[in-house]
Write a structure and sequence with these properties.
Belongs to the WRKY group III family. Its main location: nucleus. Keywords: DNA-binding, Nucleus, Transcription, Transcription regulation. One of its GO terms (biological process) is response to ozone. The chain is 41% helix and 8% strand. By secondary structure, it is of the alpha+beta class. It has a four-stranded antiparallel β-sheet with strand order 1-2-3-4, with no helix packed on it. A hairpin with a 7-residue loop joins strand 3 and strand 4. The N and C termini lie close together (10 Å). The protein binds a DNA duplex through strand 1 and strand 2.
DNA sequence: CCAATTTGACCTTT
DNA sequence: AAAGGTCAAATTGG
């Protein structure tokens, strides 16, 4: 079993474990704070697990519109023998859809390529037809926190002062405290880009996502503690961790953006974080029909 | 001494 | 076979 699978399994186990703990705290004697804490943990585990799955191309099959970024399929390992059939099948159709493409220009003058996150370089390759090599970075907290965010950085041929940055995967780590404020929750429907989302809307969406995703938790929340916790549960502001951290952006109508941004560097914000959060809204979707209850998947 | 980077080998996909 | 992406040992730097 490789690292990814272990992490996935651990997160699911953790989620189950904490859910059990939460169950024990359903007594009126327990404090809402405690329950909130447990809920936070549960959601965090789910988020990481989903992040891993999305990284493997599982979750976005329902978004066939996003084909602009022709990226290579996600990580695979030859040790994944038993579930390879599943993986391959899924990946074939969803390859390139889960990825986030972000192109921005950065002046080498002020803090080049610093987007507020801690990245660790893990590779560099010469790219055919490009004068400059492409750098591969992953989140520094990949192993400590299981954060699967990566990015690719390549200097533009046309304008060497510009860097094209492709972000892939979502941050599930707690870094860059300032960014937690501006993170935009998952959005499932709107393809309108650069449109600020109303909080209520996204909250509902997030809530719906998780509720429809885990029926046990759903029942738990609706029947037992929703009354006392619904507000806190729905509100991202109550959470300390970045559940909805910078997330994969589906291309949508991004093709036009691409050329725009490249040809007009000044149109790009100097603070990729803020810009990213608003413009590259995550449209990650959880396929409701995804066979999470299928034992074969984890075999 | 530890952590980040470099860099050629290796793997996957086309 | 070639290209892009990742791994990991060696190297570098704080």
């Amino acid at each position: 079993m490789d690292w990814e699978q272990k992490t996935l399994l651990n997160e699911l186990k953790e989620g189950r474990e904490v859910t059990n703990q939460l169950m024990k705290h359903l007594h009126p004697s327990s404090s809402n704070q405690t329950r909130q804490l447990l809920l936070d943990k549960i959601l965090c585990s789910y988020d990481k697990a989903l992040s891993i799955l999305s990284w493997n191309g599982f979750v976005v099959e329902t978004k066939p519109t996003l084909t602009a970024f022709e990226s290579s399929p996600a990580i695979d390992h030859s040790s994944e023998v038993s579930d390879k059939k599943h993986v391959l099948k899924k990946r074939k159709t969803s390859s390139g859809e889960t990825q986030q493409l972000r192109v921005c220009s950065e002046k080498s003058l002020d803090n080049p390529l610093d987007d507020g996150y801690c990245w660790r370089k893990y590779g560099q390759k010469a790219i055919l037809g490009s004068n400059f090599p492409r750098g591969y970075y992953r989140c520094t907290h990949r192993h400590s926190q299981g954060c699967l965010a990566t990015k690719q950085v390549q200097r533009s041929d046309n304008d060497p002062t510009n860097f094209e940055v492709k972000y892939r995967g979502r941050h599930t780590c707690n870094q860059a405290s300032h960014s937690a404020v501006t993170f935009v929750p998952i959005s499932a429907e709107s393809k309108t880009r650069k449109r600020p989302y109303q909080l209520e809307e996204t909250q509902k969406q997030v809530q719906h996502t998780f509720l429809s995703f885990e029926t046990g938790l759903k029942a738990l929340i609706e029947n037992d503690i929703m009354g006392s916790l619904s507000l806190a549960f729905v509100s991202p502001a109550t959470s300390e961790s970045n559940y909805f951290s910078v997330s994969p952006c589906h291309m949508g109508s991004f093709e036009s953006d691409l050329t725009d941004i490249i040809s007009d560097p000044t149109s790009v914000s100097n603070s990729p974080i803020g810009d990213l959060d608003i413009s590259s809204l995550d449209k990650l979707e959880f396929d409701p029909s995804f066979p999470f209850d299928n034992p074969e998947f984890f075999s």
